[in-house]
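Figure 3 (text version): structure tokens given as input.
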């Protein structure tokens, strides 16, 4: 895979005009654009086609679905017609829901399982009634859910760079690791909300297949150059 194809740029922007501006600017510099709930709800499904047209890249639809299996299956079958590469579904508590998602995808969109949100900590898991083996070591739950995602036919999981290696070990190389929380060494404005960060090179070396990189590119003086620098850093790994 060419290095820039591993870069996913999240269109965390409030309007269609802003999103399309970045899609056009980063055309040929990233492999995928991530459309999240904010933009999807603001613009509706037609935003997918528009971003593809301007950005000439694939789409990762980050809707993080979580419902009863039949509802998820039907929702995913609607997404399957949109021409997106990846869609997120929470791993949650039931294999049936993930299997429903995979069935609904009909092989047209890759399902990515969200294992445990990075905003969830030990205290939350304990409070929610998880067994101590999971509440006290969130990684155990992440791994368990990654294995479940693989078993149910998901193409990958969303995880931190710090988890990518253990996930590959537990679930096998066939499961894509899609990793946010990336901060290049040259990036100066680190005062944001990502806690457990990694450089692009380290994350790829740790087993990440795709990197979700937002603010380091968006807020750079020259976003195109910033994306190129990330690709060069990945390329240099050989
Ligand atoms: O690079 P930056 O921190 O700006 O990227 C933020 C993006 O990564 C957002 O779209 C956010 O939804 C996504 N994300 C995250 N942490 C996770 C999962 C996804 O920041 N654990």
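Below: residues designed for each position.
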């Amino acid at each position: 895979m060419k290095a820039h194809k591993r870069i996913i740029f999240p269109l965390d922007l409030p309007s269609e005009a802003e999103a399309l501006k970045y899609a056009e600017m980063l055309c040929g510099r990233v492999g995928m654009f991530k459309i999240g709930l904010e933009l999807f709800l603001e613009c509706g499904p037609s935003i997918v086609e528009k971003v593809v047209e301007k950005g000439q890249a694939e789409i990762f639809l980050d809707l993080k679905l979580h419902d009863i299996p039949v509802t998820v299956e039907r929702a995913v079958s609607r997404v399957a017609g949109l021409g997106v590469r990846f869609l997120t579904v929470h791993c949650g508590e039931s294999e049936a829901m993930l299997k429903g998602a995979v069935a609904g995808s009909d092989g047209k969109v890759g399902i990515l399982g969200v294992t445990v949100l990075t905003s969830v900590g030990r205290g939350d898991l304990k409070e929610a009634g998880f067994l101590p083996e999971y509440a006290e070591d969130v990684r155990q739950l992440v791994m368990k859910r990654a294995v479940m995602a693989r078993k149910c036919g998901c193409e990958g999981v969303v995880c931190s760079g710090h988890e990518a290696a253990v996930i590959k070990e537990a679930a096998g190389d066939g499961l894509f690791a899609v990793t946010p929380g990336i901060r290049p060494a040259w990036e100066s404005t680190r005062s944001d909300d990502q806690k457990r960060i990694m450089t692009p090179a380290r994350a790829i070396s740790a087993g990440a297949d795709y990197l979700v990189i937002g603010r380091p590119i968006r807020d750079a003086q020259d976003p195109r150059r910033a994306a190129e620098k990330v690709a060069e850093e990945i390329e240099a790994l050989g």
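Residues 10, 12, 34, 36, 118, 158, 180-181, 194, 212-215 surround cytidine-5'-monophosphate (CB under 6 Å).
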